[in-house]
Amino acid sequence: MHLSLLNLLNFLLTQIIYFIEKMYLLKEITMSSQDRPVSTFKSKLKSSLPYTLAVAVIGFIAFWIRTLPSGTVFLSNGFVRFGGNDPWYHMRTLNVLLENYPNRMFYNPMTNYPNGSYIHFGPLFDQMMAITSLVLGLGSPGQDMVNTVGVYFPAVLGALTVIPVYYIGKHLGGHKTGILAAILIAFAPGQFFSRSIIGFTDHHIAESLFSTFFMMFFMLALISAKEKGLRFEHVITKNLNVLKEPLIYSIMAGVMYSAYQLSWPGAPLFLLIVLVYAVVQYVLDNFRGESSDYLGFTGIVAFLVSTIIILPFVHPDMGFSMYYYSWFHLATAIGSMAGFVVLSFIEREFKSKNIKAYYYPLTILGIVVLGMLVLKIVSPSIFSLVINAPNTVFGVQTGGAATIAEVSSIFYESEAFTLSKVFGNFTASGFFASLLGMLILAVNLFRKPKPEEVLVLVWSFLILLTIYGQNRFAYYYSVNVAVLSAYVGGLLLEKVKWGQLNEKFRSSVKSPADIPGFLKFVKVEQVIAVLVIAVVLIYPVYGLSMKQTTGTGGPDGTWIEACLWLKSNTPDPGMDYNAVYEGPEDGETFDYPDTAYGVMSWWDYGHWIETIGHRMPNANPFQAGIGGRRGSIEDENQPGASTFFTAQSEEEATEVLEAVDPDPDKAGARYVVSDVEMATGKFYAMTAWTLDSDGYYQPYWTGSGYQYLPSERYFKSMESRLHILDGNGLKQYRLVHETWAYQTQETTYKQVYNYLYGGNISEVDTGYVKIFEYVKGANITGTASPNETVKISTTILTNQGRTFEYSQSTTSDSEGRYEFTVPYSTEGSISGETQFDTAPTGPYVVSYGDTTKEVRVSEEAVLNGEEVKV
């Protein structure tokens, strides 16, 4: 299977490159040689063959290095471990799609319980994997086949990206620039590599591939239309000799933009890039007295095509949303097409009426301002959406959103400026080479820049701004770094007359025997230039990318084990896991069966709980179900994961659970899953989402300086009560399962608790992941002397062989009555309910004064809140 995929990729790469090269050479022959088109074409095609093979080999290597960590994906026990978080959700949607083909899931009630989530992921990525699975599986692919396709798909798309990068580089600086750009993107480290590695089955690499193909075809359309002197009059006269090639490239640009948009709803980012470029290019052409019809034609055709393609995927019930396929996406495509129409019309009017060029940008500015004013009056909500859209991409996130790793600024860490993440994604030499490349292209603006140069400059600059806002867009800027670095490298080779050396090689080397004679023409500066490029540009990216081949991330063994335990040992929630469900009507909630329940955990783990555990998380990596505040501390603290885990008492936490579900008779979750990271490093993120982070950690003098240690407020939090203290003393939460332990910060937290707050807990690492169940609790009642201190306790034995004491204490009332609510059953599990493997080793012991009494509690009493009399 693996070898056949490699052969298939190699064939695919070669055929795609060969086809594009053939199209381009056919254009050259048609333009330059009407007398001997066939023989010249064959000669040109033969001369391009080495470049075709070179790019195919580079693509093959790009694929191969991305498959090196396959051992961390295909585990020895047969489990397939996908990377990260969202890849698990794509596999979830892929399996639902194949189960119901061709119907896909748009609304999913199996996550963000009890609300469900509309899926904002584009349909194309899943459809491509589904079609591939159906073809390779002869119409009925098994799960192994589906998993294999899913695992290798990102690596294939990452390898295919070398093709558009090569052609962009080639048309910017010749074959040498194209080949160097292909090499640099093949080894590009950081986010581009991690999101295209085996097992990271996410749409991000599809974004990079299709957006780059879009820019490639848009560039080819501009070049072709400019060279042919295309005018709108050629459209009226149907001059196909002029129109055919630019038309094909423009259509392909529209198709690729549509593919990009159907991979990610945020695709209008590239509409903004193209529109900004268009304004710049129109202004430049107008000042030079040149026609911009070539630009108008390209833009109008490309976005007309994209408008037609995106129309069937618009969901009217989503209104004007940026995050789902809605009227917004159709409007942006139509608006972009209209923008090219207006810009071209104004430009032609300026020329026909001989209006001075400097009025052109002022006119455009006036139209934009007037349009925004009209929009504000007609539709304030859409105006607000348009105004705030750039900040969504370019702005630095604050509050809880700032704790999301991928949307934080690439230039800041802990509010301090840093270049470490920049160098980790692009290398120092690559990043500064990209800046140098932009500087050179900017200087060219004052000479006579080519449209492709202006396009690459605007494109690169705006993507650079996006990574200032969100470092996730580094997988876009990696393409720009590869192209710009190769452009700089190509200029260096031009300085040492590499073109002459290349021509000499072609003319003098006919066989290997001719190579020694050729070497005498190689100059020292040419050798040095090649070495500089290899050492400064290629080797650093190679070194960093190879470091990333050691593993793929994703859930470790403890989370896999915990989720599989949930799947096998908790009641069926009564939902058809692979069914396609209709979303609820506006203002309504999904009608869940009475058996449905949620699983409360931090949002990072929602997709694992759903996809591996087949259970319904309350929160997920779409940042749904987090709760907390978004505006200010004065806002109401909405119920959700952040408010539950930071709650300062069991009662407060339970109120959150009950508030999550709109049904007053049900709680939002039956199980709570915690891991050590939630109790330590990720705890700050929970507080950040509530906009109330103060007081959980306080400075303490340690002898060598102040150190921030967990405070009393931290240890009162529900997360600490559950994970650090094992739920000891809680009335309605019981530990039902834990995984094995690792050496973590947990022991340090316990040492602080014992030393500073008088605790007496064992200072050892416990289960990395712990699963708790929320129950009504059995009510143990009895009598003692009035105002007597009464204690109840039992020893809990976990499935890992660890023991700890569970205890509560209370004071009897004036008549001697006392009552405890306890969550553990001493009699074991019952059929159809939680099959827990963590339970008391014996009965509860109630003690007061010199009296001790044993109490046994059934599972029915715990689940139903029954009274147990002592």
From TrEMBL:
The protein's annotated pathway: Protein modification; protein glycosylation
Alphabetized NCBIfam families for the sequence: archaeo_STT3
Alphabetically ordered keywords of this record: Glycosyltransferase, Magnesium, Manganese, Membrane, Metal-binding, Transferase, Transmembrane, Transmembrane helix
TM annotation in the entry: 6-26, 47-65, 149-167, 179-198, 204-225, 269-287, 294-314, 326-346, 358-378, 426-446, 453-469, 475-493, 527-545
Annotated InterPro entries: AglB-like_core (IPR054479), AglB_P1 (IPR041154), Oligo_trans_STT3 (IPR003674), OlisacTrfase_arch (IPR026410), STT3_N (IPR048307)
Catalytic activity annotation: an archaeal dolichyl phosphooligosaccharide + [protein]-L-asparagine = an archaeal dolichyl phosphate + a glycoprotein with the oligosaccharide chain attached by N-beta-D-glycosyl linkage to a protein L-asparagine
EC number(s) from the headed UniProt entry: 2.4.99.21
One Gene Ontology term, aspect cellular component: plasma membrane
Gene3D superfamilies linked: 2.60.40.3390, 3.40.50.12610
Domain (Archaeal glycosylation protein B peripheral) ranges: 777-868
Protein name in the entry: dolichyl-phosphooligosaccharide-protein glycotransferase
Similarity-based family: Belongs to the STT3 family.
Molecular function as annotated in GO: metal ion binding; oligosaccharyl transferase activity
UniProt domain Oligosaccharyl transferase STT3 N-terminal: residue ranges: 82-494
Ranges for domain AglB-like core: 558-679
Subcellular location: Cell membrane
